[in-house]
Specification:
heterodimer; A: 107 residues; mainly beta; globular; B: mainly beta; seven-stranded mixed beta sheet; 11 strands; 0% helix
Chain lengths: 107, 118
């Protein structure tokens, strides 16, 4: 199975900060990488697919990059509604696997 | 509007069985692969299973293989998860999710809670 490792597991940031989350795959997954946002007590929301393509309706402050084994999710200017937990997921091969999550908290 | 509504969760004893359902609407259900993803209390997302749109191929996470069965009814626009030999570590919220055509998950349901306890 492909292991997905996210870092950091949590971070504290202020409104307006630029935030970057990293996801590393245990083997080459090309660009078959998605990012999801989950707010407390809510279902996940899809943000990015194919490593860098925004899902419909997702604001452009979110961006993704990377290919192969190393990927990043960047939030250009953190807003109050962005405080949540973010997960990466590889869909290169079964079983599909998620990273452990990164909780973004208010500083 | 894409809608995914899960049902069937509840309290079940260890070793018991439960069937979850997911009612899909707002899209051509038969064209999309469908997933189940779960989340234990206070933990991260865990992949459970997927069923393809075309030939009904299925895949399972290692922790549920041999105990859970995913299925679908394209006439009723329904997705199912038959869960057996349930254990305490199967407890959590189970989400139904749609896969975009040949891509990643794009829509999620609100989830249904499964509690395994005697």
């Amino acid at each position: 199975d492909i292991q997905m490792t996210q870092s950091p597991s949590s971070l504290s940031a202020s409104v307006g900060d630029r935030v970057t989350i990293t996801c590393r795959a245990s083997q080459d997954i090309n660009n078959y990488l998605a990012w999801y946002q989950q707010k407390q007590g809510k279902a996940p929301k899809s943000l990015i697919y194919a490593a860098s393509s925004l899902q419909s309706g997702v604001p452009s402050k979110f961006s993704g990059s990377g290919s192969g084994t190393d990927f990043t999710l960047t939030i250009s200017s953190l807003q109050p509604e962005d405080f949540a937990t973010y997960y990466c997921q590889q869909y290169s091969s079964h079983p599909l696997t998620f990273g452990g999550g990164t909780k973004v908290e208010i500083k | 509007e894409v809608q995914l509504v899960e049902s069937g969760g509840g309290l079940v004893q260890p070793g018991g069985s439960l069937r979850l359902s997911c009612a899909a609407s707002g899209f051509t259900f038969s064209r999309h692969a469908m997933h189940w993803v779960r989340q234990a209390p206070g933990k991260g997302l865990e992949y459970v299973s997927v069923i393809s749109s075309s030939d009904g191929s299925t895949y399972y996470g290692n922790s549920v293989k041999g105990r859970f069965t995913i299925s679908r009814d394209n006439f009723k626009n329904m997705l199912y998860l038959q869960m057996g030999s349930l254990r305490a570590d199967d407890m959590g919220v189970y989400y139904c999710a749609r896969e975009a055509l040949g891509s990643a998950i794009d829509y999620w349901g609100q989830g249904t809670l499964v509690t395994v306890s005697s």
